[in-house]
Request: fold
Amino acid sequence: MSDNIIIFDTTLRDGEQSPGASMTKDEKVRIAKMLEKMNVDVIEAGFAIASPGDFEAVKAVADTIKDSTVCSLSRALDKDIDRAGEAIKGANSGRIHTFIATSPIHMENKLRMSEDQVVEQAIKAVKRAGKWTNDIEFSCEDAGRSEIDFLCRIIEATIDAGATTINIPDTVGYTVPEQFGAMIETLLNRIPNADKAVFSVHCHNDLGLAVANSLSAIMKGARQIECTINGLGERAGNTSLEEAVMAIRTRQDYFNMDTRIETEHLVPASRLVSSITGFPVQPNKAIVGANAFAHESGIHQDGVLKNRETYEIMRAEDVGWTTNRMVLGKHSGRSALKSRLEELGITIDSEEELNRTFARFKDLADRKHDIYDEDLQALMTDVGEEEHETIRFVSIKSHAETGETPSASVTLSINGQEQAQTCTGGGIVDAAFQAIESMLETGAELQLYSVSNVTKGIDAQAEVSVRLEKGGRIVNGLGADTDIVTASVKAYVNAVNRLMGPEDRAHPQRHDV
Ligand code: KIV
Ligand code: ZN
Reply:
């Protein structure tokens, strides 16, 4: 059995199913390029049938990525499979991932189908996928709560029908590591044609066990882990790519396996996904959290200075921490900016995009002496959105004085026309948001507002994350600036633009759409 674990990244599909994490085509391509650079084996780019926009995004990823396999999800339905097949047609290596639920609770309540009907539909789906590609993944949705005899039956049948990867999802994050590992072992031992397919796992983190369950599964013979950057995904998310990869790499003595991942891209990838989706990374998150390699207490610091292995099991630089290195400044030119961005995994494709980015960079460098990698990442968040935004931030003037009511005047460009509004509020940010609302009348509710510093230092940029909700739809917006109020307004405007974007997309795990 191979000792190489296939890393299947589903940030662009399951990750995108997190409320408010939906991404544009360009954003998906940007993340996919980073994943490719990191050596991810398979990139699940989306659920092609969800909407025309989703189809275009999967297609754009398939047409752009050369070194990773590009995959589209599809339910076990002809129309889904054909749409997925169309979307991945241009890929150097394309995969169709089809699935159907196999647990009694899902079959009875969601599908309203018998076991025989489910097996028949699964076989039909795998055969249909075979018209498009030889690389076919079949998933037993809610396998974690499915009966083992039924799993053996449907998996044997789908391998016979042509499935080359069999994925065992713990869809609701219900299993525990020993049990999940034992399940994989039983399946591999009992299914007569199990050696004809790669066994994969897809774990959700509802009990905080997704990484542990995935690692337990590889110890019992699974050879593909499905995961996401920052553990993004439905509800509590999926197996975190960075945690699973670093556990395998750091504890090779125990696992005796490895992945192809180039780990120095983990932190830049985490930042990129966080800034694009507006989901901040908690400071104590393993590997990519701001505190993951910070040694606060004197005792720890003393130990680390004498011998870093006293308290460090991994080297910060191996996962991409650059210790706030000053990389560019006021006098840096366009090519220095372009090549530093490339080193961060961000490619600038057109002269126009470079011009826009450089103008923003100059503007930032006028206000901030030293520009770090983190500043460049934050800068790119704004640039990526620009062409899609019908509403743009122009300027803000605010006033706050002890004992006075704070006020803010915001100027926006709305479909090319400038408009301004002044409002008062409990604070300047409140006043600025009210000014925006009085111009746009979105009626959205502010669900989350958070500020973090992009780098250390008093002149650091603030990164603001805003979450808006309207009629059940949730969007995140992100903005960065050396001024907190400006960053807040940019984040709000970014969220509003997303709220106004296309929304009608089918959810893969709903059966009735
Ligand atoms: O969690 C799950 O079961 C899924 C499937 C669609 C693979 O995401
Ligand atoms: Zn999932």
The chain has 17 helices and 16 strands. The radius of gyration is 24 Å. Residues 14, 99, 139, 141, 169, 171, 202, 204, 508 surround 3-methyl-2-oxobutanoic acid (ligand 1) (CB under 6 Å). The mean pLDDT is 91.
